[in-house]
Design a protein that fits this description.
mainly alpha; 2 strands; rod-shaped
Length: 139
């Protein structure tokens, strides 16, 4: 049973990581974008992303997996342990709850760790704004 759970978690994380490409800024078609064209805008986006990375800004949220797993384990263990106090076998139920909570926290943390960092987005948006573009969102 434990092996099946670990395989399911690994597959979920793996599929989630492969399912989408990283979000990119969406540019409003202002006069500057119309003047320079899409090819130049794409190069400018790549340049701004690289500038953010070379400035030490992390593209993704770091540390989400471990923190979410620990939080899930604590919540799952405490709630299942409390239920076990009422129904009996508190220790066994707390351990099972902690395992389930850790698995859920790991999956959630892995998904969130692939999200673009707000600082990275702000950096790229400022860089593009300085070049004359208007960023209206990310997708």
């Amino acid at each position: 049973m434990r092996t099946k759970l670990l395989v399911a978690v690994a597959m979920t994380v793996g599929l989630g990581a492969c399912a989408s490409s990283p979000p990119r800024p969406v540019l409003y078609p202002n006069a500057h974008l119309q003047q320079v064209g899409r090819a130049v805008a794409d190069r400018d986006i790549a340049e701004c992303r690289q500038l953010a990375l070379s400035s030490g800004v992390s593209e993704h949220r770091e540390g989400q997996v471990g923190r979410k797993a620990a939080t899930g384990a604590a919540i799952g263990g405490a709630s299942a342990g409390a239920w076990g106090l009422v129904r009996g076998s508190a220790g066994e139920r707390a351990l099972a709850g902690a395992a389930a909570g850790a698995a859920a926290g790991t999956v959630r943390g892995a998904i969130q760790s692939r999200e673009t960092s707000p600082v990275f987005r702000n950096f790229v948006q400022k860089c593009l704004r300085d070049k004359g573009y208007e960023v209206i969102g990310w997708q």
